[in-house]
Design goal:
Spo0b-associated Gtp-binding Protein, Chain: A, 3 domains, six-stranded mixed sheet, 8 helices
Length: 420
């Protein structure tokens, strides 16, 4: 199972606006008619039922949406770029990775959930947009906005109602096989199971999904054993079946250590409802120590279930108890698997920013940094057009406030001129 991958996504660039003028017989002074560029395509990630792993993203690591098309004359807007939709299994968590830090973008819990992970750039304005009573024949247009480019993490977490946890060789695979139709590999050596296994447990007319969470040992939260990779699969579950090995030196101490690992990995995981189960009670050595284990757990106020997964003893009763606990956790719409929605307000950027860089004043105006001249426009015309647009936005006042004087160099986008 490939359940964790990083990819690079690039949304489409917006198409450029064009500089155009109406040219028709008997229509003198037709005026500007350059159309806007089309919007670039978005990169969308959607959960679907037909995909069960992330192996499709193993080789291709870069995904690009289509660019928007250029605008045209007669005020025609360019065609928008097609969105690129990436399909992932339900239960995939999407994160944005910047400088090694991950920020949650979305949790696609069910098929049909989707999220835009990279937005396409806006199309540039055609020269029609710059027409005014003072400037009847603008010779400028706007380049398309670049699409967003990001590194995205895809982390598939199994969607199960109940997770079976425990140290290696506690009998997790045997319990899953005894309680459901799942057929995990069962053997007498540690780490027999190297990936989570799902099974459907039927209780009368009802059922629930149970997953074996493999590879947990002391230090699992640090990545030892297989735990670091698979502990996250337990985060979606509502109830944990904590299976204790009756033949271990101290089953109770094992329980304490494993709960400590859960808390170190995720405090929410440690607070999930647990059903404590002692396995292998069919063995004589376990029967001999059973009274001591019972009294030790009873003194701590912990109810313990006793089973033999190999012989099927007590398994049916345990599953009924687990189902009862599951219903209690999820009744009334409460479901601790749901991820709390987080609102992250974005800082509002000022419309105009002026800063001193070296011997020049740099003007940052998102709307004007992508200005371009039409075919045949002179540099003097282009500077006049840009200067006129800057004054309309009050940039002259911002420059004066920043300390600019006549003759100082001013730069906006790729154009530099002397302020006057």
């Amino acid at each position: 199972m490939l359940d964790k991958v990083e990819i690079r996504v690039k949304a489409g660039n917006g198409g450029d606006g064009v500089v155009g003028f109406r040219r028709e017989m008997y229509v003198p002074f037709g005026g500007p008619d350059g159309g806007d560029g089309g919007k670039g395509g978005d990169v969308v990630i959607r959960a679907v039922e037909s995909v069960d792993s992330l192996r499709g993203y193993r080789r291709n690591k870069v995904y690009r949406a289509e660019n928007g098309r250029y605008g045209q004359g007669r005020k025609k807007t360019g065609k928008n770029g097609e969105n690129l939709t990436l399909e992932v299994p339900a239960g995939t968590v999407i994160t944005e990775i910047t400088d090694g830090k991950k920020v949650l973008v979305a949790d696609l819990e069910k098929a049909g959930d989707k999220v835009i992970v990279a937005e396409g750039g806006k199309g540039g304005w055609g020269n029609t947009r710059y027409k005014s009573s003072v400037n009847q024949a603008p010779k400028i247009a706007q380049r398309g906005e670049p699409g967003e480019e990001k590194t995205i993490g895809l982390d598939m977490r199994l969607i199960a109602d109940v997770g079976v946890i425990g140290y290696p060789n506690a009998g997790k695979s045997t319990l899953l096989a005894a309680a459901s139709a799942a057929k995990p590999k069962v053997a007498s050596y540690p780490f027999t199971t190297i990936e989570p296994v799902l099974g459907v447990v039927e209780i009368g007319m009802d059922s629930f999904i149970m997953a074996e969470i493999p590879g947990l040992i002391e230090g699992a939260h640090l990545g030892r054993g297989l735990g670091h990779d698979f502990l996250r699969h337990a985060q979606r579950t509502s109830v944990l079946v904590h299976l204790l090995d009756g033949t271990a030196a101290s089953p109770v101490e094992d329980m304490v250590r494993l709960n400590r690992e859960l808390a170190m990995y995720d405090t929410q995981l440690a607070r999930k409802k647990q059903v404590i189960v002692l396995n292998k009670i069919d063995l004589p050595e376990v029967q001999e120590r059973l009274p001591g284990v019972r009294s030790e757990l009873k003194a701590s106020g912990i109810k313990m279930h006793e089973i033999s997964a190999m012989m099927g003893q007590g398994v049916a009763g345990l599953m009924k108890e687990v189902y009862k606990g599951l219903k209690a956790e999820t009744e009334g719409g409460k479901d601790i698997r749901q991820t709390e929605k987080v609102y992250r307000p974005q800082t509002r950027e000022p419309q105009v920013k002026v800063s001193r860089v070296g011997d020049a004043y740099v003007v940052s105006v998102p709307r004007l940094e992508r200005i371009k001249g039409g075919a045949g426009v002179s540099e003097a015309d282009l500077r006049w057009e840009l200067n006129y647009q800057l004054k309309r936005l009050g940039v002259d006042r911002a420059l004066e406030k920043a300390g600019a004087r006549e003759g100082d160099k001013v730069r906006c986008g790729e154009i530099t001129w002397e302020w006057s």
